[in-house]
Automatic annotation (TrEMBL):
It comes from Ureibacillus sinduriensis BLB-1 = JCM 15800. This is Uncharacterized protein. It comes from the Bacteria. Keywords: Membrane, Transmembrane, Transmembrane helix. The chain crosses the membrane at residues 6-26, 38-60, 66-84.
Length: 196
């Protein structure tokens, strides 16, 4: 029984940490509508493991599973998983995003979604660069384009994403048809934005 509780403790802790670390990818894969159910399943599994580890302490004086759960809970509160996953996404896909921007600048990639003149459906190779279907939004700025790559394409008007600003200027509050509540500079030409 001790080994079963230990395995349950380790697996439930790894699953909940993975859920928080890869949340953005999971939202893109499972949709915003299914995420609450996946979250409940993940948290429920973790709580079952936690309860069994507490029972193990009182019944068998076996502390390892409870210690694993307590460390996991500390990590969930202390580690900025959201920021880490966004930074990771930005750094790992930046080169490909720059490639897409140069394709737009050269005219090789143009708006191609019939119902919206600002949307570009990315070629399959670049589909993973923008969540919610592989579409990006472009806005003309003089001779260049500002480009929005979605990290979350929410319901109705809500979204978040990385904006490339060709002149490095901070995006306006109403750019890209949103009401930008958060605008954080990432580096010279890049911003992370949230609209809700």
């Amino acid at each position: 029984m001790k080994k079963v509780v230990l395995y349950l403790s380790v697996s439930s802790s790894l699953i909940i940490l993975g859920f928080y670390l890869f949340r953005w990818g999971l939202i893109d894969a499972f949709s915003v509508f299914l995420m609450p159910f996946l979250w409940l399943l993940t948290v429920g599994f973790f709580i079952v493991g936690l309860v069994l580890s507490i029972i193990g302490v009182f019944k068998n004086k076996y502390w390892k599973p409870l210690l694993i759960h307590l460390i996991t809970i500390l990590l969930l509160f202390l580690v900025p998983f959201n920021e880490l996953s966004l930074k990771f996404d930005f750094l790992m896909k930046k080169e490909d995003r720059v490639e897409v921007i140069s394709m737009i600048s050269s005219g090789n990639l143009q708006p191609n979604v019939s119902h919206n003149k600002s949307l570009i459906k990315l070629p399959y190779k670049y589909n993973q660069l923008s969540s919610g279907g592989g579409e990006i939004v472009v806005e003309r700025q003089g001779d260049a384009y500002s480009v929005l790559f979605f990290t979350l394409r929410g319901i109705l008007d809500g979204f978040s994403g990385f904006i490339y600003s060709p002149d490095g200027l901070k995006p306006g509050k109403n750019d890209f048809g949103g009401d930008l509540k958060e605008i954080d500079k990432l580096n010279e030409n890049w911003y992370f934005v949230v609209s809700y």
